[in-house]
Every structure is written in structure tokens, then in C-alpha cells.
Amino acid sequence: MGATAAQWRHPEVPALNVIGLHCEADADAERRPRTPGLPDSAFQHDGQLTKRDVRALTVSRLAPAPGELLWDVGAGAGSIAIEWMRCDPANRAVAIEHREDRAARITTNAMTLGVPDLSVVIGAAPDALDGLDAPNAVFVGGGATAPGVLQRCWDALRPGGRLVVNAVTIESEVLVAEWYGRCGGELVRIAAEHASPVGGFTGWRPAMRITQWTVTR
Questions:
Q1: Rounded to whole angstroms, how far apart are CA atoms 138 and 136?
Q2: Are 207 and 192 spatial neighbours (Cβ–Cβ below 8 Å)?
């Protein structure tokens, strides 16, 4: 028997079978390369999503290598952890998210985007980080201002590990500036603008600027 998945008409088959699968995308399928920067529409989210342009830059700063482990703290939709794991089949990630509805959404996104082994921890950092394997890289996208979070992440990093923090609010910017003064690294301001309709014309609409701190332990 042979058919495409959409045309398969055999709900039950004999128990012993040898099955050959050939994976080929439909002509109109959305292209999803392994390089970071999937379209925002690829993720289910409630607005708590690291947007495409910033996400691509963030994953590049995290510098994933085969077999490494990432902590995605304050994961939101889990986009950073998912993109990290998509870079190499051996990569691992833990997404830490305190809201159960968002944690469920992370699991759905991971299944949809081909990384079902993404581990999701429901809880608030820093307490939710207890007992996790030491990471090679940590991304803090939410909850950076919670007492003890950055210190716990910094202490947990393996030698040579990378810490990347994206700050949106003034309060989180002040915090990363203090850490930058203590530990060094690189502090970058990221701004993106997208063309959109303005009446019958087209203009630029800026997204919120991101202050990104990257440091190697």
C-alpha cells in the first residue's frame, strides 16, 4: 500500500509492518529552516514572545553548540528554547515559566516545531531553578528584576557559559547596567522598525527597543 498521509485510508493495518516514510513538504507549506528567526506566526502566544528579529540576534549571542543545555528563564512562548534546540538535534533546553497556561503553550509549540523533548518547568525563578542540570547558556527574557534571579543564573553557568539578558523596562535596564559594570561583557541596544500602512501610504512603525546584555563566565 502506498499513499500520502493526507490520502491514507487505512485506520487499521496488521500489527507487523515495515513502513517507509518519505518526508516532503507541500508546495504551499511555510518554510521553516533551522537557522534562528522563525516567523512570529509559527508560535502560539499571548503577546509574550521574543519577536523574530530580536530572537535571531539573541540565539546568535547564546551561541549554541551541539549537545549543549540552555535555560530559558521566563520563557513566555518558549521561542528561544525552541530555536536553540532546532539548531542541532543534540541540543537540550529547559523552559522555565511560572504561568501554567503559557507552559502548556510552550509544550504545544515545541511539538509543532519539531522539538518535543523540550523540558518545561512550571514555577518562578530563582526557586524553580533548583535541581536543574548546570547550563551552558542562560537566557533571561522575563523576571530579570526578581530578587536573586541573575545571581542564581550566573552562579549556575558552566565555565565558558553564556548569559544573555533582554531588558525592555527601565527597571530591568538599570539592573543589567549594574551587572555590566560588575562583570563586563557586551551591552547593546536593539531597535527594529517595520513598514506598515499609514492611510494610503506606507510608513515605519518602531517596535519597543531592547537593551541586551551578553557575558561569558
A1: 7
A2: yes
